[in-house]
Every structure is written in C-alpha cells, then in structure tokens.
Write a structure and sequence with these properties.
single chain, alpha/beta, UDP-n-acetylglucosamine1-carboxyvinyl-transferase, Chain, 4-stranded mixed β-sheet, 14 helices, binds ligand EPZ
Length: 434
C-alpha cells in the first residue's frame, strides 16, 4: 500500500491542469450500456475508479479501449452485445457508483441482477430512491440475498417521479433508464449538479430527448434506441477546488487551467471572504495568497449544487485549521463526513465535532505527523494540511486518493510542493467503497 509524504513550508508557484471529472466519467461510462454503437469519451481521467468500472463493463461484454487522442486521454466503449447483466457483490462493494449500471442494463436488455452496495465510511448511503424510481418506471424488483433482481420484459414505461429529496445518484440513474422507456418521464426535485448536466447533454448527443437540463425538473421523452458518438468529459470541479484550497493554504500563485471557474463559485466566494485573491480566467482561475498574512475564519454549510459541495468540505476544513478565528462547518449531505477531523487534530488542529457541526479554532501552526486517509476527499485534506505543517506528514491508505486524483503528487510537485509517493505493495481494486 503506497503512502504520500509531504514536507511543509514551500509556497506554490505554477500551473495545474484540471482533469476530466471522475463523477461525470463513471456515469458516462455506465451510459455506454444504453447503445449498441461505440461511445468515445475524451478528456477521460485515468483513475482507480474509472479503471475499475471499465473492468465491470467488460464483464457485461462491453469492449473498453483506452488510448491517447488529440485532446489527451480517451476511452472507447463498445457495448454492441451485452453478454451478462450480473454485477457481483465483490465488485459493487468496492465502488458503490457501480450500482448505477442497474438502470442502463435493465433499459437495454429488460433484466439485471446487481448487488446492493452496502454502507460506507461517510454514511449509510441507501439506494431506496433509485429502486423506487426504477419501480415507478415499471420494473419489477426483488431484493434477495443482498441482490437487486430487476425485470421489465416489455420495456420500461415513462412516469412522473418526484424525489422526496435531492439525490445525485438517483437522478442520474433514473435519467439514464428513462431515455429508453416508452412515453414521457418527468423527474421532479432532480439534482442539478454539473455532472448531471454533462450526462444529460451526452445522452442528447446520443439521440435522447431531454428537456430542463440544469434545472430541478427533467422531462424525458423515451426513444427506442440511442446511437453512439463522441463526448468530452466536463472538468473536475472537485479536483479543481482541491488545488485551489491547496494554493490558498500554502500561499504563492497558482493558475488552474482546463477547468471552469463558475463550477466552484460557492468555494471561491468563501475563499475571497477569507482573504484569498481569486481571479477567474477563460479556462480556470488564478489563486494568489501572501503566506505571511493569516486567512480569516469563515463558516460554511454543505448544500446541493449550486451550494457549497460536500466533496470540498474536508479540504476547506484543512484550510480553516490555521485561519484566524473560529470557523463553523455544517455537513448537511452525509451523516458521518468528519472522519478527517481527528486526523487533522493529529497535526495539531483544534476541532470539536458535534453531530453535523464542526468548530475549527484556527491555530498558528500545524506540525507534521503520520496520518491515515479515511476516504477520497478526506485524504486530499490531509495533503493540504501537510503543505504547511512543520516537518514531515506521512499519509497512509493512499489508495483512497488514487480513486479520484490523477497524478496528484506530480501536479503539486510541479508547483514546488515537497511531496513524494512512497511505494508499497499493490492494493486489489479501488479499495473499500464509494
Ligand atoms: C454523489 O454521491 C457523489 N458520488 C459523491 O461524491 C457526492 O458527495 C454526492 O453525490 C453529493 O454531491 C458520485 O457521483 C459517484 P446522493 P451519491 O445520492 O449520488 C442519501 C466523492 O467523493 N440517499 O446525492 O451517492 C445519501 O445517503 C463522492 O466523489 C438516500 O437516502 O449522493 C446522502 O445522505 C463521495 N437514498 C444523500 O441522500 C438514496 O436512494 C445524498 O446522496 C440515495 C441517496
């Protein structure tokens, strides 16, 4: 198992290219099941999660070809023939988003058997909304021995579905299935995360009829088949936001390229309040901060998009550990997403957590220590804290990072961070969960 070692104290200067979004790529990959024609995804991040989902798709008979294209990395998916519609526990357990193959398999073939994903470190994360929505689309669903068996021998039927609350995964999952349902589907209280807009636009490129993209009501007119085509994955706003926090923490001047400033507005607004200089550019932002001047503590509450992203909460908390004053952080999306707090405290941070609220009292300095990554975004928060911690911070369980951050040590190292990967024995699969 690899670890990452950071020596704190270097300011960052340079430029970091943003990769394609993991959370868009893995849904677009699942969408390749909906068509018997090739789907080319460009601007594809090469991550443990995309590799893993590629292997799952191959089990269904999808051919997956990674290659270098004009616009960087790309992957061609060809689901001409679906030879299996079974997704075993061992695979779904390791990456819960692989549950989202259920709807596309069902819509394309009329049947599927997919393991329930189980819980995860950041919360219970049930999939009841997904199952209710597919049932409303006419699927007959049975839960047995930890598996969801779904059949729709005469195809899915359009329906009006109002989600009880906003769910990114349930919106994407139902959207994909509804593209091939007979008649009209209306999804109310749909999530509006940019990755859903990306998926919907790709589906439209494939021949789907979808209205209301980027709003909370999606209207899908089912079609009998979808075509293939080529689609460029949207930039990763969470990766971008993480490097913005890293630059704000270490100080210096860093330019993020190949991104979109508008997608991280809720983060950059808070950073400006805190004293960071942020300049939007045509394809990203420039982050500037004088390391001699302490940032001011700012409160945040995580919300669905366009609110402050839960996937940036840990990184923001890391930044607040050395700000002047007390920052109150509310986590409203997941019930257990403060696992990084005790690890940050090992570096000298002062944090108290009560239910969904964390109070971070800024300290003058952090001190390096061995720490353990608990999930993907938590692990990058430890890297961010390590950038200013005196001495050496060594972060274990780096496989979490590798699920969602492409060449992190290379990207930060190119800007002057003293960071390196220490090789350990390989880990099977992407790890445990997400
Ligand atoms: C997606 O998870 C992302 N994952 C998460 O990113 C992200 O944190 C989350 O959306 C919120 O933005 C992927 O896109 C692969 P939800 P998802 O359904 O779809 C509850 C990362 O680090 N819920 O919007 O699972 C759920 O438990 C990951 O990249 C139900 O109760 O999130 C949670 O409390 C972590 N029943 C809330 O809703 C359901 O059927 C929001 O979850 C579905 C969800």
């Amino acid at each position: 198992m690899d670890s990452i070692t950071v020596h704190g104290g270097s300011t960052l200067h340079g430029s970091i290219p943003v990769s394609g979004a993991k959370n868009s790529a893995i849904k677009l990959m699942a969408a390749s099941i909906l068509t018997d024609q090739p789907l080319l995804l460009t601007n594809m991040p090469r991550l443990a999660d995309t590799k893993f989902l590629g292997r799952l798709l191959q089990q269904f008979g999808v051919s997956v070809t990674e290659r270098d294209g004009d616009d960087g990395q790309e992957t061609l998916f060809d689901a001409r023939e679906i030879t299996s519609t079974f997704a075993p526990y061992d695979l779904v357990r390791q990456m819960r988003a692989s549950f989202n193959v259920l709807g596309p398999l069902l819509a394309r073939t009329g049947h599927a058997r997919v393991s329930l994903p189980g819980g995860c470190t950041i919360g219970a994360r049930p999939v009841d909304l997904h199952i209710d929505a597919l049932t409303r689309l006419g699927a007959s669903i049975h839960l047995e021995e930890g598996y969801v068996s779904a059949v729709a021998p005469d195809g899915l039927r359009g329906a009006e579905i109002e989600f009880p609350f906003v769910s990114v995964g349930a919106t994407e999952h139902t959207l994909m299935a509804a593209t091939l349902a007979q008649g009209t589907t209306v999804l109310k209280r749909a999530a509006r995360e940019p990755e859903i807009g990306d998926l919907a636009r790709c589906l439209v490129m494939m021949g789907a009829r979808i209205e209301g993209i980027d709003t909370d009501t999606l209207v899908i007119e089912g079609v009998t088949s979808l075509t293939g085509g080529s689609w460029s994955v949207i930039p990763d706003r969470i990766e971008m936001g993480s490097y913005v926090c890293a630059a704000a923490m270490a100080g210096g001047e860093v330019r993020l390229t190949r991104g979109r400033a508008g997608l991280i507005q809720s983060l950059t607004d808070r950073l400006v309040e805190s004293g960071v200089e942020i300049t939007p550019t045509g394809d990203g932002v420039i982050v500037k901060r004088d390391p001699a001047v302490r940032l001011r503590a700012v409160d945040v509450a995580t919300e669905v998009y366009p609110g402050f992203a839960t996937d940036l909460q840990a990184q923001f908390m890391a930044l607040m550990t050395t700000a002047e004053g007390v920052s109150v952080i509310h986590e409203n999306i997941f019930e257990n997403r403060f696992m990084h707090a005790p690890e940050l405290m090992r570096l000298g941070a002062e944090i108290s957590v009560h239910a969904g609220e964390a109070r971070v009292t800024g300290v003058e300095r952090l001190k390096g220590a061995p720490v353990m990554a608990t999930d993907l975004r938590a692990s990058v928060s430890l890297v961010i804290a390590g950038l200013v911690a005196e001495g050496e911070t060594s972060i274990g369980r780096v496989y979490h990072l590798d699920r969602g951050f492409e060449r992190l040590e290379e990207k930060l190292g190119a800007c002057g961070a003293d960071i390196r990967r220490v090789k350990g024995p390989p880990v099977e699969g992407p790890g445990d969960d997400h």
